[in-house]
Specification:
The structure holds three protein chains of three kinds. Chain A is built from one helix and five strands; from the N terminus they run ββββαβ. By secondary structure, chain A is mostly beta strands. Chain A has a domain of about 60 residues: Alpha-Beta Plaits (2-Layer Sandwich), CATH 3.30.70.20. The N and C termini of chain A lie far apart (about 60 Å). By secondary structure, chain B is α/β, with parallel strands linked by helices. Chain B has one domain: Rossmann fold (3-Layer(aba) Sandwich), CATH 3.40.50.970. Chain B is built from eleven helices and ten strands. The radius of gyration of chain B is 18 Å and the shape is globular. The model of chain B has no long low-confidence stretch (mean pLDDT about 95). Helices cover about 40% and strands about 20% of the residues of chain C. Chain C is built from twelve helices and 16 strands. Chain C is of the alpha/beta class. Chains in contact: A-B, A-C, B-C. Chains B and C meet through β1, β2, β3, β4 and α3 of B and β3, α3, α4 and β9 of C.
Chain lengths: ~100, ~290, ~375
């Protein structure tokens, strides 16, 4: 029995965000420290960074861990930390030790 | 109108959950552009990374009507869309075709030049990563001189085709270059294109870290170095008047070229020659 | 309703005008171009409210037509031969996107060597592309089929190619009845199918995995199967409304008591009718089956109509290299296992080679003498 499909091959708008596969590829993730440069949200390829109440906010479900935000944040307010924390435990995050 | 980050719409009309590689320059360009284009936009994208990362099966990363077209026809399809909207009395929808360097400058050029000559009321965007990345990084007409690609292991022997000059030669009322490292400059150019009732062309340099052989997190950084070294000039041509929209600091071209894996075969002499021509172009005297 | 002299090109243009097409995109090619020139004049004279996109290539012509259709407009274009081949990729794509686009095709031979003369090879080359294909025997049918094509296309959501022969039809004047606009409006009301719509955004033609692709193709083929029924229904309704019933997939002519049936499509049908009349008057039991719809291929209809004959002669104005005539091959396939009848297939009239009444009679005579062909198709008229 053939699947029930729309007549014209079409997809529901915005539906990829419901099950973002890219977050499973992540080797590192950004940690927002004291980032105040709102512009970094415009450099995110995945719409994972947004501005909420005047501050940069991160949705890790959408983040592929590319590190562009950390590279671009002018005040060094975003740091990339490894997803795999190793047998020794969590690598210390700068400023959070 | 000068844009401020606070004024940009919060809605993500494109990008969330997209199937692109991490650090995708094309996706960044798409997100920046959509902040200005808005929800009343129909976009056609020919075969490219941008088309494939935007949807699979019954899912899409677009919240506006998005159509993944055949390779050589996006501007023609958009012309038909505009004609259909017009006959239905719909005048408040932006029609955009968005191709890669192949879908714009090479296999897609015929439909592009046709639509431009007809001065169709639409915007064509070339997001340029300077090689055919969707098939693994082969040489395109937009690959710069000396760059390595997956089907050329020596380095490109000829220059990058100047698409902006070609599109300018169509006598269009709006032609602009842009870079994902200068989002406000880019977004203002989209505003200007929207204000043009005819055909507008925007050519965005959007690095691909895999093709350029640079670290992913440096995607924006290299887009910026391309501009600051003077190799990618940011300008617009509005009704024939050409304006440089950003004065580069003219850092040495070597700082842009040499860290990229794709330029590992470039000779010292070649770098010097490029530097000389850039210095001359910007009229800042010999260094 | 009025009767006037029209070329096949003009008949296609009038058909499109009566169907109230809204967008046409076109790139000139010989001999299809007069149809579009006529449409362009209708628009500029204010007789038709439509947008004309003067594109830079045949490929873009169908691309723009498709774009217009996706955005909800009734869209039309015209081409033939090299133009149709250049569109091939877009043809498959249009069918896969299930768009009710209608295209008229003034059939012409394919290069190389270069020829601008009539033949059905261009249409035959598109036999697997997912378009419904109708063949017209005269200019009246060109007009009527163009209107019906939209009805069929919009019912089953598949594009339709309306074939008429280059020069033989496209440039030849015949008497054509032009139906009243109001009656056509009632027969073919404007229904919009919007796929690209800002009010209802969707992603179209996303990358499709093996989990879905085959199901889409199954559905697409089902629509083609549905067209088998719809083409007949549309012809029937059209016949009731306009007094001309071109029948559905096939039409049988003087098949009562026929022992020998001719099978062909396009302009050859008109002359085959004359041949049948003449032979019948001589007491020969010859009949004719006109293939009006080549896609979907009328398998059941052919089997039923050819049940009682013992010989079938097929004329093909095309050649599938290394195989034979497309229609001959397919007729044999359709009739396989039905009876021990003898199907003779002839390649005729390629690239404008003369194939008129006399030639038809010669082939019939030849076929009468041939009990079993030792080739798939024989060449006639070399």
């Amino acid at each position: 029995m053939a699947k029930n499909l729309p007549i014209v091959p079409t997809a529901k708008p915005g539906s990829m965000a419901e099950t973002p596969a890219g977050s499973t590829w992540r080797e590192k993730r950004p940690v927002l420290m004291n980032c105040t440069c709102l512009e970094v949200t415009l450099y995110c390829p995945d719409g994972a960074l947004s501005i909420v109440e005047g501050k940069v906010s991160l949705d890790l479900n959408l983040c592929k861990g590319c590190g562009i935000c950390a590279n671009e944040c002018k005040d060094g307010g975003i740091q990339m930390v490894p997803e795999y924390t190793g047998a020794q435990g969590v690598f210390p995050v700068k400023g959070e030790e | 109108m000068t844009l401020r980050i606070e004024d940009l719409p919060k809605e993500e009309l494109f990008g969330q959950g997209n199937g692109g590689c991490k650090a995708c320059g094309a996706a960044i360009a798409g997100r920046q552009a959509m902040k200005v284009l808005g929800e009343r936009t129909i976009i056609t994208i020919p075969a490219s990374c941008m088309a494939t990362l935007g949807g699979n099966n019954q899912k899409t990363a677009w919240k506006i009507p998005f159509y993944h077209t055949l390779f050589e026809m996006a501007p023609a399809v958009s012309s038909g869309i505009r004609a259909a909207l017009e006959i239905q009395g719909v005048n408040d929808v932006n029609v955009v075709s968005w191709g890669g360097d192949a879908g714009s400058a090479d296999i897609g050029f015929q439909a592009l030049t046709g639509a431009a000559e007809r001065n169709e009321h639409m915007i064509h965007v070339c997001y340029d990563n300077e090689m055919y990345m969707n098939t693994g990084g082969q040489q395109s007409s937009q690959t710069p001189l000396y760059a390595l690609t997956s089907n050329d292991h020596i380095g490109k022997p000829v220059k990058k085709k100047n698409m902006l000059a070609i599109m300018e030669a169509h006598g269009l009322d709006y032609v602009a270059s842009a870079s994902i490292a200068y989002p406000f400059d880019l977004m203002e150019k989209f505003q200007n294109a929207l204000a043009n009732p005819g055909f507008s062309y925007i050519h965005i340099l959007a690095p691909c870290y895999r093709g350029w052989q640079i670290p992913g997190e440096k995607t924006i950084e290299f887009a910026r170095l391309a501009v600051e070294s003077g190799l990618w000039e940011l300008f617009e041509v509005k009704k024939g008047v050409r304006t440089r929209t950003h004065e580069p600091s003219l850092i040495p071209v070597a700082d842009y070229l040499l860290p990229q894996g794709r330029f590992k075969n470039i000779s010292k002499k070649a770098v010097e020659e490029i530097q000389t021509s850039i210095t001359k172009y910007y009229g800042r005297g010999d260094k | 309703m009025s009767t006037t002299l029209l070329t096949g090109s003009e008949a296609a243009a009038y058909g499109a005008k009566l169907a109230k097409i809204e967008v046409i995109a076109y790139y000139p090619i010989t001999p299809a171009f007069p149809a579009m020139e006529r449409v362009s004049k209708f628009i500029q004279d204010g007789e038709l409210k439509a947008n004309f996109v003067r594109v830079e290539s045949d490929h873009s012509a169908l691309a723009a037509t498709l774009g217009a259709s996706l955005a909800g407009a009734r869209a039309f274009t015209v081409t033939n031969s090299q133009g149709l081949l250049y569109m091939t990729e877009v043809c498959y794509h249009t069918a896969g996107l299930r768009q009710p686009v209608v295209m008229a095709c003034a059939n012409r031979a394919l290069s190389a060597p270069h020829s601008r003369f009539p033949e059905q090879g261009d249409a035959v080359s598109q036999g697997a592309n997912g378009w419904i294909q109708l063949f017209c025997e005269n200019n009246q049918e060109v007009l009527d089929n163009t209107i019906q094509a939209f009805k069929i296309a919009e019912t089953v959501k598949l594009p339709v190619l309306v074939n008429y022969e280059g020069y033989v039809q496209s440039h030849t004047l015949e008497e054509v009845v032009i139906p009243d606009q109001e009656k056509v409006n009632a027969f073919l009301p404007l229904v919009r199918f919007k796929t690209l719509d800002v009010e209802n955004p969707q992603g179209v033609n996303t990358v499709t995995s093996p989990d879905f692709y085959m199901d889409y193709k199954f559905r697409q083929n089902e629509a083609m199967n549905e067209a088998v029924k719809v083409i007949g229904e549309v012809a029937e309704t059209y016949g009731q409304e306009f007094g001309r019933n071109w029948s559905g997939l096939i039409e049988t002519y003087k098949m009562d008591g026929a022992e020998h049936a001719l099978v062909c499509m396009g302009s050859m049908v008109s002359e085959a009718r004359l041949a049948v009349d003449e032979l019948r008057s001589q007491g020969k039991k010859v009949g004719l089956v006109k293939v009006r719809a080549w896609r979907p291929f009328p398998v059941e209809a052919l089997r039923a109509s050819l049940k009682k004959v013992n010989k079938v002669t097929v004329f093909d104005k095309n050649i599938v290299y290394g195989m034979g005539g497309a229609l001959g091959t397919e007729v044999r396939g359709a009739l396989y296992g039905q009876a021990s009848l003898n199907v003779n297939s002839y390649i005729v009239g390629l690239g404008g080679r003369k194939f008129g009444l006399n030639e038809i009679k010669q082939v019939i005579e030849l076929s009468e003498k041939t009990v079993k062909q030792d080739v798939i198709s024989e060449w006639f008229g070399l």
